[in-house]
Amino acid sequence: MTSEAASKDPISVLSGFGAGTATSASKNGGRTTPSALTPRPRSGFVETEQVRDLTRRGLGFLNAGYPLHFRGPAGTGKTTLALHVAAQLGRPVIIITGDNELGTADLVGSQRGYHYRKVVDQFIHNVTKLEETANQHWTDHRLTTACREGFTLVYDEFTRSRPETHNVLLGVFEERMLFLPAQAREECYIKVHPEFRAIFTSNPQEYAGVHASQDALADRLATIDVDYPDRAMELAVASARTGMAEASAARIIDLVRAFRASGDYQQTPTMRASLMIARVAALEGLDVSVDDPRFVQLCSDALESRIFSGQRAEAVAREQRRAALYALIETYCPSVAKPRARRAGGGARAGVEGALP
Fold first, then answer.
1. Together in a domain, 351 and 220
2. Binding site: residue ranges?
3. Residue 347, C-beta contacts closer than 8 angstroms, at least 6 positions apart
4. Side-chain-facing half-sphere of 307: CA atoms under 13 Å
5. Between helices 293-303 and 315-332, what is the axis angle to 10°?
6. Helices (H) then strands (E): counts for the chain
7. What is the pLDDT along the chain (357 residues), one digit of tens a residue?
């Protein structure tokens, strides 16, 4: 695949992520509704053929009325892609982040406070008529607002919420009806707006704080698997986000991709690691080469922690894996004077080890 630089209208992101404006909360018929986000273009996003393909496939399901689900490991850009696709729909966006403490009331709404009314009638001077009423105040939450107004709902990492929380979604996607709890009083259900769309993301490889998705919900979702971006996309993103020369960014990208391909880690190094190294190197003016001890230290700080999750690893195994990482640095970020000439065991290795504590 070939990559392209950011176009005149680069990828769209949402106001809640550093750009755009938010529509403030409002009261509607005694209800309080949460604010929605307005999509707007953002510079620094590179749209490659891979992104365009995923966007086209996702919009195909959404335009047909199906909820979309982007599934993939950490660092594959699921959330960014979901926000980009949502922006293409041209509707306000409401975002929910999955959480174990999230309940149905957090999606639909609940009674929040009371509205008091007191009338004192003294039309007849020696007779006082007193009338007092107290009504509970209903507050719409994100799902209800999106269904009522026809907004786009982005539910990020939805498997972090308990499965029973999502029972209310089954009727939304199948019957296009949102059933409200009895406390709502005014209405027991609402008809889902025809423009309502939903986009989910999840990480199937995560195991900490994640619940299995219920079959009834998974069966209603159109799932697209998102893999790690190809080299062309990583290179284009790194160059656009950091302003680094493409040749220097390519060295960092190739280093991290080789480290990921080695499998010699406990936490997978993703494109975030490449961007971390490239951004710091660009800001600090480092030479992307094994000749610069500060750059070598930067790579060590960003990548070595992924080899071991704690201090229990045996010293021998630790040193072996560190040596393998340093060999990759020598290979993919070689000396500028003699590119790729110094291999493991040579003078560059001594320079690498001398740069590290």
1. no
2. 72-79
3. none
4. 24
5. 130
6. 12, 15
7. 333 333 333 333 333 333 344 554 455 555 555 678 877 655 667 788 989 999 999 999 999 999 999 999 998 999 999 999 999 999 999 999 999 999 998 999 876 666 667 777 777 777 777 777 766 666 888 999 999 999 999 999 999 999 999 999 999 999 999 998 866 556 788 999 999 999 999 998 877 778 988 999 999 999 999 999 999 999 999 998 899 999 999 999 999 999 999 888 888 899 999 999 999 999 999 999 999 999 999 999 999 888 765 555 566 577 777 888 889 999 999 987 654 444 444 444 444 444 443
Task: Looking at the structure, tell me whether residues 106 and 199 fall in a common domain.
Answer: yes
Residue 104 included in any domain: yes
* Phi, psi dihedral angles at 88 (to 5 degrees): -65, -20
CA distance 278 to 300: 13
Which pair of tokens denotes residue 231?
A: 């080299």
Q: Is residue 126 situated within a structural domain?
A: no
Annotate 129-185 with three-state secondary structure.
EEEEEEEEEEEECHHHHHHHHCCEEEEECHHHCCHHHHHHHHHHHHCCEEECCHHHC
Q: Which tokens go with 297?
A: 């230290």
Domain membership of residue 207 as a residue range = 12-110+138-225
Amino acid residing at 131: E
Residues in the annotated binding site for ATP = 72-79
